[in-house]
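Researcher: I'm preparing a figure for a lab meeting and need a structural model of a single chain. I don't have an experimental structure, so a prediction will have to do for now. The sequence is pasted below. Please return the structure as tokens so I can convert it later.
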Amino acid sequence: MPGPRQKLSVLEGNGRKHLSKSEKAQRAAREVDLPKPKTMRLPKWLPEEHRKEFRALAKELLAADMGAAQLDRDTLGRYVVAQAQYAQACKMAGEALAAENSVLAEKWTKIQDTCFKQARACANDLGMTITSRCRLVLPEGARPKEKNPFEQMMEERMARA
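Model: Understood. Here is the structure written out token by token.
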């Protein structure tokens, strides 16, 4: 069974697949390449109390350069809202447990679980969890090449000679 389809830059970076010029042009024409925005616009539906958190996370996502685009703003907004609802549900579940009200505690832990799953799904979509970042495939050219100490010593030696 074939693996997931990879971008042309990833294939070229890995050097495992040899494509003709026409195949490369054809494949490049079919790829979607969204421009990286300087900032991510706020969704209009996002409540005022969550906007600061949205801006901070959007700035971090764009700085990480993992392919976030304007299209991802609704997912990020849903993540921020779900995370806030999860925190509120944790507080309410804790209060119910402290009051020894097991019926109310059970209700709030179910809500807490739902909010956690929503936040986790959005985080996975955006590459904000460690497992989702591990699945991201970056082309070799995107990573800075580490300098081999032996090569560096030999270059210095050649420069002195």
